[in-house]
């Protein structure tokens, strides 16, 4: 019976879109991979869910080979896993994205299993972003929300909102990817999961994006409602007071509206 269920699942997956599984890691010059094991575990979980062939041992060996000839500076390392188990590892220099523009999506995202896994199948996000770029010049990414009006995530990062002095992040059940840096901060009790509505996002005094490659990215409101500018990145701080102090520092340099 179990084998029959797996066979039926295989048929459904084979009829679906072709895609690879993805992990993006931070390579720190002189420090190695940041939060490596949680990334390996997440890739293993997604491979099991989508029935991809995967060997954690082979991945670690490939990453060890990579680290034997490392980039000169901090880099973003991207891992692609194909269904048959083929691994591709690429790296690129890690440059700051300070000044990038984000906006709140004008439309909700539809529920999908792909939202809970990091893959190359991102058509829903890509289509929404393309629609918005026609109205907002220079737009880098969107902050998304679901059909229940709950904030989920940005296209490349999780969302954190400072609500009454508590760092809050949307629940995975709302449609947020279980990001590695997000999980790390939850484990430190630095952030907590909460239902966050679009109105909470718009009214928030302090708003951030987070991921394990760029760390904390504080946002500042732009003149146009529902649009923000990234005011910094490459900050992996785990002290809440320092995060808030840093955000106040950058916000004071602009005109908050």
TrEMBL record:
GO biological process, one term: carboxylic acid biosynthetic process
InterPro entries reported in the protein's UniProt record: Aminotrans_IV, Aminotransferase-like, BCAT-like_C, BCAT-like_N, Class-IV_PLP-Dep_Aminotrnsfr
Annotated GO MF terms: catalytic activity
Pfam families per UniProt: Aminotran_4
Family: Belongs to the class-IV pyridoxal-phosphate-dependent aminotransferase family.
Entry protein name: Para-aminobenzoate synthase, component I
């Amino acid at each position: 019976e179990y084998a029959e269920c797996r066979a039926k699942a295989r048929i459904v997956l084979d009829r679906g879109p072709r895609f690879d599984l993805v992990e993006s890691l931070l390579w720190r010059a002189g420090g190695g991979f940041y939060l490596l094991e949680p990334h390996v575990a997440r890739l293993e979980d997604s491979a099991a869910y989508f029935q991809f062939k995967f060997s954690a041992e082979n991945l670690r060996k490939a990453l060890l080979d990579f680290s034997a000839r490392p980039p000169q500076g901090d880099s973003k390392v991207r891992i692609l896993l194909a269904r048959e188990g083929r691994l591709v590892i690429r790296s690129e220099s890690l440059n700051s994205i300070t000044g990038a523009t984000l906006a709140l999506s004008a439309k909700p995202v539809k529920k999908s299993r792909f939202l809970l896994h990091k893959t190359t199948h991102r058509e829903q996000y890509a289509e929404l972003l393309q629609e918005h770029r026609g109205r907002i010049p220079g737009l880098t990414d969107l902050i998304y929300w679901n059909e229940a009006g709950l904030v989920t995530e940005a296209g490349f990062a999780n969302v954190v909102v400072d609500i009454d002095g508590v760092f809050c992040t949307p629940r995975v059940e709302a449609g947020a990817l279980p990001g590695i840096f997000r999980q790390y901060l939850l484990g430190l009790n630095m952030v907590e999961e909460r239902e966050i509505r679009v109105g909470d996002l718009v009214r928030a005094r302090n708003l951030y994006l987070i991921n394990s490659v760029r760390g904390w990215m504080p946002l500042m409101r732009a003149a146009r409602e529902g649009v923000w500018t990234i005011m910094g990145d490459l900050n992996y701080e785990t002290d809440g007071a320092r995060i808030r102090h840093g955000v106040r520092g950058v916000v004071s340099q602009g005109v908050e509206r």
